[in-house]
Design brief:
heterodimer, A: 11 helices, elongated, B: mainly alpha, ARM-type_fold (chain B), Armadillo (chain B), cell projection (chain B)
Amino acid sequence: MIGTFSYAKFLKFLYSVPEAERGWEKSGVNGKLTAPLDWLYGLVRLPGRRIVTPVVNQMREAMATLARLQARSKAVGQQYYFRNSVVDVFRKKENDAAVKIQNWFRGCRVRAYIRHLHRAAIIVQKWWRSYLSRQHYQLVVKLAYYTMKMNLYNEMAVRIQRRWRGYKIRKYCFDYFYLKEYLRAVTETNDAIRDALEEFAEMKEREEKKAALEREEKKRDYQARKMHYLLSTKQIPGIYNSPFRKDPDPWELRLQKAKPLTHQRPRVKQKHSISLTSWLACTSNRSFPRSEILPPINRKQCQGPFRDIAEVLEQRYKPLEPTLREAEPINELKEAREDLRRQEWIRNVNDNMFLPFSSYHKNEKYVPSMHSSSKYGPNSYGCQRFRDENPKKWICPKDFQTVLPSFDLFSKYGKLYSKAGQIV
Amino acid sequence: MSQRQVLQVFEQYQKARTHFVQMVAELATRPQNIETLQNAGVMSLLRPLLLDVVPTIQQTAALALGRLANYNDDLAEAVVKGDILPQLVYSLAEQNRFYKKAAAFVLRAVGKHSPQLAQAIVDCGALDTLVICLEDFDPGVKEAAAWALGYIARHNAELSQAVVDAGAVPLLVLCIQEPEVALKRIAASALSDISKHSPELAQTVVDAGAIAHLAQMILNPDAKLKRQILSALSQIAKHSVDLAEMVVEAEIFPVVLTCLKDKDEYVKKNASTLIREIAKHTPELSQLIVNAGGVAAVIDCIGSCKGNIRLPGIMMLGYVAAHSENLAMAVIISKGVPQLSLCLSEEPEDHIKAAAAWALGQIGRHTPEHARAVAVTNTLPVLLSLYMSTESSEDLQVKSKKAIKSILQKCTYLPALEPFLYDAPPNILKHVVGQFSKVLPHDSKARRLFVTSGGLKKVQEIKAEPGSLLQEYINSINNCYPEEIVRYYSPGYSETLLQRVDSYQPLAN
């Protein structure tokens, strides 16, 4: 027993008597060291350290203690052996019991530890899960909110689109009321056209009937004119005026009204002649323009006191030769002025002269002065002169003519047609 | 004295020639003499007389030749073969107006029979001379030349082009403005013949400013002139949208509508042809016509004529209705449908009936409203009978079938559909039953009516292959009714009931 010196056992023995319950087992063998031998063990365990002199003294004390203890060791050994053999009987039982108790206790301890760990794990997991769930929940809420908003927008958009589509179709693609209006307008136009065409047809009919009647009338009239000799006379009643009839036949009346046809004058066949002045004749280079018949060159003179035909023709076609008095009158200018005035008077709408706008405000009436507006007239002595005009004394308003028109006496001398007065 | 005798011989000969030629000309006016004349060899005798010294003999010989060639194309060919044409053309340039008239008459008479003869005339250079004649100041000469040109241009596009290339069109437009009515007629007819072949020729006529003058003369009281004017305008307008628009811009509406009330049948026909040619191009032009009240005028015109005169008016209604449903509705409210169904039933000719059927189909095919308007007038049975009848021509059958189909596909007016259940052929029955199957599920009154009128019974009797469209329709109709009713009306129900009676054992008390 001593032979195998286990250091740990030795220490245990050393400390088993007074300080078994110090609890340094808790911290194990290498745990906290108690005060008196602290420094020793610290020393022993750290062999590399240098030993300081107060420490050597203490070491000597320790060695002394150790020798004392070693002396006691034999007794201790015996005691030890004795105690071990006494308790050996109970040893297994106590050991078992101790094991059991330790077992259970360890179990409790482990269970408590596990429980503790459970709780800790649960708390950790709880917190972690709640965190995750909250995140997830926030996502879900966000999504739900977003979906709700989008649904709302979609619904509103559908409402707008519904209204717009209905409006568009009804107004632009197929406007039912416009179609109805259009069809009504078409019916109205049709009726109007039908009426107009009926009227037109009726008018045409009437015109035709009228024309037919007129033709009949003309024919009958012509017949009556041809048969006018069948008119009844006083002696002989005509065929349409039979004495046995109450009224004469209408043809009788017609014959009375008709004018007999005259003999047909032999119609002079108009020769197709193209005058020289007609331009159409010149266009076609194939047709030859024919002129009027000219008189033959040599013609026998008519018997009688006739003048030369050339002279006659000359006189006949002589142009007008006005006298000087007519051709250039002296009051030509005055008459021209009068003419112009007359023409302007015809043309004017208003005879009043058009005054300029500047004289618009000049509408004040002239107020004559007192001197000239009294009934006692002005003194003629200082005012009237010998050469002044006095219109009241005039016998006629026209002035003397100073220039008289000429008269021609000898302008036709030698140019007259008649041979009167000519020396034979 | 001997000189006198010699001159007398010549005078006698001249008298004889004159007499001969005048008699031949007179005889040639009567058709029965012409065979004899031909056999007697009149052509070879007349030919040298064309070169006679005396102008009257020349003219009368030309006149006689013209009358002979006018009669039939053998004689015309003989004229061509006898090399008479170059001589005529040569002397046309130099002679007086009577000769020109007669020579133009010969050319016209030869050119009217066939394109080959007309080509022969063109080949001998007659066109230039005829155009020179158009410039003559005598209206008779102008008329004869314009007539000849018109007859030449009538045959085909190449000859028309030759006439146009000779520069005839501006002169014809000038002729139209002349005061003589006969000349105006002929010039209008010549312009119509030129412009009818192709759009380019019509454009040439339009470029010469013809439209304005033609449009002014619509108001002229002469009926024959109006015929030609309207025909010319319709030949111009028929080629393209631009030409039709130009014709419309000349402000013919609503004046043209008065022509629809004219006494002369052909004026009415040509006026409705003009309106048809304008309406067929675009919806806008049809709209213009509708807005001017043209539809009502045309419908009245259809009501007042018979036979072929009606045909352009009927086609015009069809064209207008074909463009859009609004225009078809406008035709309906102008009371067009009763008129068209009247045409359909009372006209004897197949092509007019076919046109009326087509027009009705175009009106009714747009929406159920339109189909109802057509069905209400009881035209569908008439169309069906036309389709089924063996006497109708193929064209009529095809058109009435199309019309029936297109109307039925939109028709929801059940009283009109019911008769179809009884006597329609299977391919039409399918559509009828289909329409019923669309309407019946939604309308309870209609269902009741369907049962009481015996329609349900008839539907049960229809045999259809299972899985076909007809069977599906029948099933959907049967689904609208409770099962008992369907069973009640199914064929052979009475037998099954009696069988049940036979097999029933009364309860023994």
